[in-house]
Amino acid sequence: MAMDLNPQWITLISASTAMIASIAGPFVNTRIAKFEFKANVLSVNRQKWIDAMRDLVASLNSQLLIAAAFRQTLEEPTGLIIARDPELSRRVENLLRTVSKIELMLNPLEQDHQQLNTLMKEGIDQLRSPLLDDGVEDRIEAISRDITQVLQGILKHEWIRVKRGE
Question: Is the dihedral of CA 107, 150, 95, 55 positive or negative?
Answer without folding.
Answer: negative
